[in-house]
Predict the structure.
Amino acid sequence: MLYELHELRHQALSPLMMWMQANAGLFSNPYSVLAYTPFSRNFAAGYDLLLRLGKRYEKPEFGFKETRIDGKSVAVTERVVLDKPFCKLLHFQRATSRKDPKVLVVAPLSGHYATLLRDTVRAMLPDCDVYITDWVNANSVPLSQGAFHFDDYVDYVKEFISCLGPHTHVISVCQPTVPVLAAISLMAANKDPCMPLTMTMIGGPIDTRKSPTAVNAFATQHNHSWFETHLIQRVPAKYAGHGRRVYPGFLQHMGFVAMNPDRHRESHWDYYSDLVKGDGEGAAAHRRFYDEYNAVLDLPAEYYLDTVKFVFQQHLLPQGKMQVRGELVQPSAIRTTALLTIEGELDDISGSGQTEAAHALCDNVPADKHQHLTIKGAGHYGIFSGRRYREHVYPHILNFIRKYEKTQGKSRPVVETEK
């Protein structure tokens, strides 16, 4: 019922959204007389802000058309390598014959689209052959495709790694660190020939008992049935996934905003002020961030509930009790894959030590293949997006990948990183 009410709200507000859009134009368009009246900028800014607060945000595009390699512009083509019901494996194919490290970026299935990692990928394109998991909005997956559980996520990751073959480097950001570690552990236990060379885990909930955050506290303060009763909804009839049980993206978005309401309020006020002052650069930066932040997808109910239970309530992986399709997940089976963990000092989603906990679990990985990096002053998003990521995190990741890259040709040089 809540999902239907959400859709009804959007339909009811649609005429109002069109009216506000028209008024924003009337008070800002240089060909409109109203644009030259007193307080025209204030009115235009107010209508623009209200429009952005009330409209629906669709899935953004990655938008990569080119990158620069060795000082030259190189075309980039987005290609679907594997098309699964709940995820597409995308390849950002570069028009170059250069043999760079093959990298699989496993994006979160936690409310936002994979495009949230646009900065992550953009920085890598000049140096790496990049693939990414592009998760499908569950409201568009027909019921005939069946359910999608935590075990299915692990199976997808194993299939994607096998598709790319040996000598792949795997990077997981936030939520997928757990299923990715589970997948690679199972591959190691079964002596899979496609074991990745490295695994980089960024800001993930490997062990949420360490430095628990508000996200972790919320998960432990409610039992499993509460989540199923209060948060799981049926997809309305207008979508291809009609009838599928999901954790709606709009509920997850409300949770995101509720974690830092003051910060979002200040950001919207700054946006309004920038429009009034005519600061186009500041307003554009706000739009870029919130066009991404406000675009959310629905999660399959089975996967969401499994994750809450296994990762945040029962802590199965760090306790050595996690099973996938009846097979015990043993990170100690990993012996050859190098491990890098990255955390943000001020991360309020995955607390300090939660990602680093992977090192103790992977106790048979040689000591010289363990690395950990804490980024001072960085929050959750700062460790995979923005200036800190580009200047401090990515150079470290690139050095780590190149250190273990196995190619027939000459190894490419490492880059300088700040000590």
Notes: DSSP finds 13 helices and 14 strands in the chain.
